[in-house]
Amino acid sequence: MSALSALYAVRAYGLAHPDATLAEIIESLRRSDADMSAVNFSGAVAFHNALDLPAPDAPAGFFRATLTAWINHAEPWWLRLFPYGRERVLAALTPDEIQCFRAATLLQDPPEAEICEWWDELANLRRAAENADLTEQGREAERWSMDYERERLNALGIELRPKWVAIENNGAGFDIQSYDAGQVEPVSRLIEVKSSSQTPPRMILTRNEWETASRFGERYFFHVWSVPSKVLKVLSSAEIEPHIPKDRGVGRWAETVIPVS
Fold it and tell me: What is the pTM of this model?
């Protein structure tokens, strides 16, 4: 909080004296205001150099803008708690951090519309980042499965190569088309790839994926990769079927979570 207060004073003084250097501004503030002698100017300088900040207006609005810029710049560990609500975030903050949030009027109860928008914007940014991370993790797992299938086909003596279907059609209901040895010629083996960083790993299965699996039966398989250990569990449709929920009344299931031992 001391650094934020110093930063506000520095930016306000600089706005009134645009020709003054940063060092001159700090020295002038220290000489002219006794309260400024103990504030954290080194922290203020770090903020000033690292962040793109607006001209100071009302202190609360400036503090909010500074917190927004710093959170996006530093990505503190508690940023991942924003999608779970304000209470979860506050429980992870230090007393000094809470003081900064309070000075920015972010702890209003009940919050005004612009305060709600601030919390929602940070939560949405974090969700977008998490979705991007999951997409990257999923693509990496698909690459692992492509490598796995190439090696499996080589071991079977099948010259055909697997096709990365998800790159071309993400709504096909499976990610990779590979092959198994048939009585006369190779037959298709359809693979849905899942990845999980949890312990034990789990797979999230959509209704479209399961309906596709049911349609192709014994030719449809699931690859479940543990991340980052890169351990693979291959499951058939028959092994998954007992864990599929049932529709009841007018309700229809759309997605289910299945732990994988």
Answer: 0.72
